[in-house]
Design a protein that fits this description.
The chain is of the alpha+beta class and 150 residues long. The chain is 32% helix and 30% strand. It is built from four helices and seven strands, in the order βααβββαβαββ. The chain has a seven-stranded mixed beta sheet. Helix 1 packs across helix 2. The longest helix is centred in the middle third of the chain and has 15 residues. The protein is globular and about 35 Å long.
Length: 150
């Protein structure tokens, strides 16, 4: 099931960041409580969707998004290794894009680390195009038109 995040989901989200995002990131990340506080701070802005087996269970996937003017910004997406290749990431992205369209977004945008080939292939399959390389962040900015504007 996919639902909006609840406060008790934070533990599972931190676990997903630690196991799925930190290992593929070119940046040094804090450990333990500092990582948790940084994630909590980041999640305060915007909305977070989670996927879990049941309503009260820990999430095995999540997507954090922020709507800014007419842009849907996909900030974080992670799916537990045991649940990858089962369309959970695709479904989370579809739900986020639907939400963005309802909020009047004309495009979706996200950043992908320059060496994360698997993520590049995933987002390309969903219709995202690399618009710009941001060398200072060592990533690419990807965009996709949303709703009736494309």
């Amino acid at each position: 099931m996919i639902r909006w995040m609840r406060p008790r989901d934070m533990r599972g989200i931190v676990r997903l960041v630690r196991t799925q995002l930190v290992p593929v990131s070119p940046w040094h990340h804090p450990r333990d409580s500092r990582l948790r506080s940084e994630i909590a701070s980041r999640l305060r802005e915007g909305c977070t969707l989670v996927a879990s087996k049941r309503r009260c269970e820990e999430p095995f996937a999540f997507l954090h998004l922020v709507v800014q003017d007419s842009v849907l910004f996909i900030d974080l997406l992670a799916v537990d290794t045991s649940r990858q290749n089962r369309h959970w990431g695709t479904e989370l992205m579809a739900r986020a894009e639907e939400y963005g369209v309802k909020k009047g977004c004309r495009k979706a945008m996200l950043f992908v680390d320059e060496e994360n080939d698997r993520a590049h292939r995933f987002y390309n399959r969903l219709g995202y195009t690399a618009i710009k390389h941001v060398s200072s962040l060592r990533c690419y900015r990807l965009e996709k038109p949303l709703g009736r504007w494309w």
